[in-house]
Amino acid sequence: MAAPPGLWRLGLSRLAAALGLLLSAGAVPVMAQSPAPTLPPPDSVHLDRLGYMSTFPPEGAQRVDQSNAYKYPQLRWVVQHLRELQPTRNIRRGSAPASALPADPKPLGALQFEDAKGQKISLEAWAQSTYTDALLVLHRGRVVYERYDNQMQPSSPHLLFSVTKSFTGLMAAQLAHEGRLDPQALVTRYVPELAGSAWGDMKVREVMDMTGAVRFRENYTDPSSEIFGYAWASGLLPRPAGYQGAGNVYDFLKTLPKDGEHGQAFTYRTVHSEVLGWIVSRVTGQHWADLMSQQLWQKMGMEEDAYVMVDSVGTPLQGAGLNATARDLARVGEMLRLGGRFNGQKIFDAAVIEDTARGGDRERFKAGGLQAARPGYSYRNQWWVLHNADGAYEAAGVHGQFIHINPAAQMVVIKLSSHPVAGAAFTHATTLKAWAALAQALR
Amino acid sequence: MAAPPGLWRLGLSRLAAALGLLLSAGAVPVMAQSPAPTLPPPDSVHLDRLGYMSTFPPEGAQRVDQSNAYKYPQLRWVVQHLRELQPTRNIRRGSAPASALPADPKPLGALQFEDAKGQKISLEAWAQSTYTDALLVLHRGRVVYERYDNQMQPSSPHLLFSVTKSFTGLMAAQLAHEGRLDPQALVTRYVPELAGSAWGDMKVREVMDMTGAVRFRENYTDPSSEIFGYAWASGLLPRPAGYQGAGNVYDFLKTLPKDGEHGQAFTYRTVHSEVLGWIVSRVTGQHWADLMSQQLWQKMGMEEDAYVMVDSVGTPLQGAGLNATARDLARVGEMLRLGGRFNGQKIFDAAVIEDTARGGDRERFKAGGLQAARPGYSYRNQWWVLHNADGAYEAAGVHGQFIHINPAAQMVVIKLSSHPVAGAAFTHATTLKAWAALAQALR
User: Ranges for the Beta-lactamase-related domain (chains A, B) (predicted)?
Assistant: First the structure.
C-alpha cells in the first residue's frame, strides 16, 4: 500500500502521536523493553490548569481540534468530549427510571499496597499517578468507592477505546449461544464481501478470540502501515490531500490480506472487532448502537445515554468507539458478576458469561507474545481473562480504561483514565497489585 | 471575497442545494414571485421507502454522507440524524424524572379547514402534504393531538434550523432583564473582536431584533456570497481544496462588513444569531449548550437530551444547530404560554416573555420585504410575532419547523417537518390557516 500523495504534509510525528490512541496490546512487548517514559506530573496536565475549550472562542494553546486532538495532554480533554470532534450515534437509555446503584462508602482511598517495584502506595496516590478520571469500586452490588477527577462528572461519558470490543464480543457470544451465529462457520457465510481478504478462510471463532492471521501493522513511523489506512478510512484522522484509499471502515477491511496461518496464535487486532461487529449486524439486521440500546442500556436502567463514534457511512467503531459513564459501566460489571441478570431482566445468558470468564487458550495467548504485561492471561469473546484464583476477567482499553470483575471477591472495578502512555506495559503490573489489594480489603 | 481554488470541484449546483438548508426568510420574497415548485409525492420520499442507512453498510443510493447530506430527499434522513454526520455537544436533561405532559386526545386529524387556495383539507392531509415528521398540539397544557411519521419517534431529536435562534434570543432577553446585558450598548462592549466588522458600531438590540445592517448575501449561484463562507467556516460543507478562509464561525463573523445603516429595516440574517450567542457566552462565561441544559433542559424535566452542532473549535451553531424532540419543544411552548414557569420552576421572567410576545417594530419589519409570506408580523428577541387578535407568536425554521404559541386559545403547536422547499413562501399562508383552525376548534 503506497502512501497517498500529501501524506507528508500531516507530519509523521503527529500521525504517530495521533495513532497512539489506537495502540493495541500488540505494541506492548516492544514497549516493555523500552525504558520507562518521562511522564508529566498529573497536576500539570489537569484540565482545570490546561483550560482547554473554556473561553469563547478558545484561543491558541487552549484550542483542541482535529489538528491536535490525539496529542497529549489534549487527549485528556478528548476522552471526555469525543462527540464534539466526531460524528457519533446515540445509545439511548430509554425513559424508565435509573436502576438502583446503592452506596456504602468505605475509606478505600487510604488503602495501602505495594506497587510493582515493592514501594508502598495508597489507592488514592495510585489513582492520581495513573491519571485517573474516574474510579469506582462495587462490592456485592454496592458502591464502596467512587472518585472523580480532571473535570470528570458522574454524568460524563468517557471514551473507552478497546473496552468497546468486549461489548461486541458478548453480543456475538450471545448470538452463538442462541444458535443464530455459528462460531465454526466461515466469516464469509455472514459477510461474503470479505472473501478476498484475510477473513476469506477464517472462522468466526478465530475472529471472536483474535487468533485469525491478518496483516495489520501498527508501525507509526511507516505510513504504509495498515494502521494509517484504518485511521483515514474511519475518520479518526483527517485524510491527506489526494487520498484515494477506502472511504469507510468496511471498505478498508476488504483490503487487508492474510498474514500467516489462522488459529495458531492470539494476535490482538482492532480490525477483528470491526469484522465481528459487522457479522453481528448482518445476523441481527440491526445497527450496533441500537443493539446496545435495546439489549443493555434500556433494559439495565442506565443513568445516561451512551454513544459510539461512526465513520462516514454510519459504521460504528465497534472496536474502539464507545463512550459511557463510569456508573453505567459499573452496572455492566455487576450484571456480568451476577451471571447476566440485572434490574430484573436477563441481559445475557449465564452460559455466555461462564464461557467468557472461563477464558481462551492460554498456549495460543503465550504465542502472541503478550505474556510480559499480562502474565498467564487468555482472551475469550474479546475479554481478557486473568486465570487467577478469583476467576477474574476484564475489558481493557488504551490510556487506562477497565471494567474489572472479580467473582470470588464479589467485586467490580471501573477505572477510566487519560494516561499519557497508550499501552499497558508500564502500568499493568501495578494495576494487578491494585486489583488484588482491593479484593483482599473487601473480602 | 474571491472563490478559493478548488471551489468548482464541489459543483455549484450541489452547493446551492446544500445551502438551501440555511435558506432564511430573507429569500422568501424572491420565491414568492416564483411559480410553485413541483414537489415529490410525500409517500415517494418516506424513509421506509428510501431505506437510507438501513443496511451494513448502506450501498449506493441508500448512503447519506457529506457528499449528499443536504440534497433532497436525503435531507429527510439528516434532520433526524444530524449527530451521525457532524460534531455535536450534548444538552443534558439531568437525572430527574420527566415532567408531566398529560394527554387528552381529540380527533383533530379529521379537522377540516380551507387552505390558502380555499380548498377543503383535513389536518391529517395537511400534515401529510407538508412532509410533517411530528405534529403535536397542546391545549391548556394537555396533549390533544400527537402524530409521528417518516420514522420519527417521540424520542427522536429533530434538527430545528432557525428555531434555534429563538432560544438564543430568549437567553439574551433574560440577561437584559436581569441587567447583565445592556441592549443599548455596542456589541463591542462584549465582543471587542468584532470592532472591524459590521457589528463594530451596532447596538445589541439591533442584533436581537435583526435590524443591524450586515453584508451577508445568500446568492447560491455566486460562490463569493457570504453564505458559502459561513458554510465552510462552520463545517456545514466540506471545505474546498486549498481553502484559506476562516477556520471557525467566530473568525468568519469578523470578516463581514457593514452594508447600509443600522436600525432602519428588519433584515433576517443567521449571522446575527451567532453574534448574539457569542455575546451571551461572553456575559455568562458559559457555553450555549450548558446554559440550555442548566436553564431549560434540567429545570423543565425534559424527556430526552437535546444537542447542538458545533464547529471545529466547539462553537455552537446558535442560529441553526439545535436538535430536540417534539415533546420537549411542547414543554418549551407551554412554559412560554404560562409566562415563563414550568415544572414548578421559573425558567424566564414573565416580563421577558411579555416583551417578546408584544413584538417588534412592524414598520421596520415591512421595510425588510417579508410581508408577502408573513403579513403583519414583526420580529422581537428572535421570535416571529403574528400581531393577530390571539397574541400569537412563534419560532420558525426552514423546511417546516415551528413552535407556535397562541395565548388566547391556550394552545401550543409543534410542527417538525422535512419539506423539500426550505423557505416558507409556498406554505405559510396555509400554515396560518391551520393555526387558526386549530385555535378555533379548541376554544
Answer: 129-424
| Mean pLDDT, rounded, for B26-47 | 69
Q: Is the pLDDT of residue B99 over 50?
A: yes
**Are residues A83 and B88, on separate chains, in Cβ contact within 8 Å?**
yes
Distances (CA, A) of B355 to B169, B173, B281, B379: 12, 9, 22, 11
Integer Cα distance of B376 and B385 in angstroms: 9
Burial class, A124, CB count within 10 angstroms (exposed 0-12 / middle 13-18 / buried 19+): middle
For chain A, what is the mean pLDDT? 92
Q: Which member of A84, A98, A248 has the closest CB to residue B57? A: A248
Q: Which residues contact B73 (CB under 8 A, 6 or more apart)?
A: B40, B45, B50, B418, B420
Looking at beta carbons, which residues of chain B come within 8 Å of A294? none
**Which residues lie across from A402 on neighbouring strands?**
A396, A415
Catalytic residues of B: 162
Q: Per residue in A146-200, pLDDT tens?
A: 999 999 999 999 999 999 999 999 999 999 999 999 999 999 999 999 999 999 9
Q: Are B287 and A56 inside 8 Å of each other by CB? A: yes
Q: Nearest CA of chain B to the CA of A294: how many Å?
A: 14
Considering only B5-14, B15-24, B276-285, B336-345, which range has the smallest mean pLDDT? B5-14
In whole angstroms, how far apart are CA B78 and each of A345, B21, B60? 34, 11, 17
Contact check, Cβ <8 Å, B56/A282? yes
ipTM field: 0.93
Q: Where are the beta strands (DSSP E) in B301-353?
A: 306-309, 322-324, 341-342, 345-346
Single-letter amino acid code for the residue at A313: V
Confidence of residue B219 (pLDDT cuts 50, 70, 90): confident
Q: Where are the domains of chain A?
A: 7-163+286-442
Percent of residues, chain A, with pLDDT higher than 70: 92
Q: In sequence order, which residues have a C-beta less than 8 Å from that of residue B60 and are 6 or more positions away?
A: none
Residue type, A72: Y
Kindly report the backbone phi and psi dihedral angles of residue B145, in degrees, each rounded to the nearest multiple of 5, phi listed first: -155, 135
Closest residue on chain A to B98 (Cα): A95
* CA distances for A224 relative to A31, A76, A212, A218, A238, angstroms: 21, 28, 21, 10, 16
Q: Which CATH superfamily includes the segment(s) A7-163+286-442? A: DD-peptidase/beta-lactamase superfamily (3.40.710.10)
Contact B246, B235 (CB under 8 A): no
| Residue among A88, A97, A278 minimizing CB distance to B56 | A278
Helix (H) or strand (E) holding B379: strand B378-380
Q: How far apart are CA B394 and CA B380, in angstroms?
A: 10
